[in-house]
């Protein structure tokens, strides 16, 4: 891990397109940081990234018994056919 000291108003660069600026430091030591990055770069607080990973793990897969019950319940159903629009000729 690279450790840097910065004061309010100072920045650091990550590559050519990502800039991190220290906006302010309050009396409690809380730091306000500004991040400038291209739209395609996802910027998240670490706790949000961890929560998203936990949610993805929880939603991952259904237990095999549930999958089997759903397959059984849906096996006798035919797919729904769309109804032709009223007043419009049907396409061949």
SSE map:
Blueprint (H helix, E strand, L loop, with lengths): L10 E4 L3 E8 L5 E6 L9 H14 L4 H11 L18
Features of the shown structure:
single chain, 92 residues, alpha+beta, three-stranded antiparallel beta sheet, 2 helices, 3 strands
Short description:
The protein has 92 residues and is of the alpha+beta class.
Describe this structure in words.
One of its GO terms (molecular function) is mRNA 5'-UTR binding. This is Translational regulator CsrA. Keywords: Bacterial flagellum biogenesis, Cytoplasm, Repressor, RNA-binding, Translation regulation. The protein has a domain at 11-72. 27% of the residues lie in helices and 20% in strands. The protein contains two helices and three strands; from the N terminus they run E-E-E-H-H. The chain has a three-stranded antiparallel β-sheet, with no helix packed on it. The radius of gyration is 27 Å and the shape is elongated. The N and C termini lie far apart (65 Å).
Q: Report the helical percentage.
A: 25-40%
Number of strands: 3
Distinct helical segment count: 2
Radius of gyration, in Å, reads 27 Å
Chain-averaged pLDDT = 82
Beta percentage is 15-25%
Keywords: Bacterial flagellum biogenesis, Cytoplasm, Repressor, RNA-binding, Translation regulation
Pfam family, one: CsrA
InterPro entries: CsrA, CsrA_sf
Subunit structure: Homodimer; the beta-strands of each monomer intercalate to form a hydrophobic core, while the alpha-helices form wings that extend away from the core.
């Amino acid at each position: 891990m690279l450790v840097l000291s910065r004061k309010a108003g100072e920045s650091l660069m990550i590559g050519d397109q990502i800039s991190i600026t220290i906006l302010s430091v309050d009396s409690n030591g809380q730091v306000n940081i500004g991040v400038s990055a291209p739209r395609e770069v996802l910027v998240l607080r670490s706790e949000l990234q961890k929560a998203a990973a936990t949610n993805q793990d929880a939603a991952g897969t259904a237990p095999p018994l549930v999958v089997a019950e759903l397959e059984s319940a849906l096996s006798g159903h035919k797919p729904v056919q769309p109804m032709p629009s009223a007043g419009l000729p049907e396409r061949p």
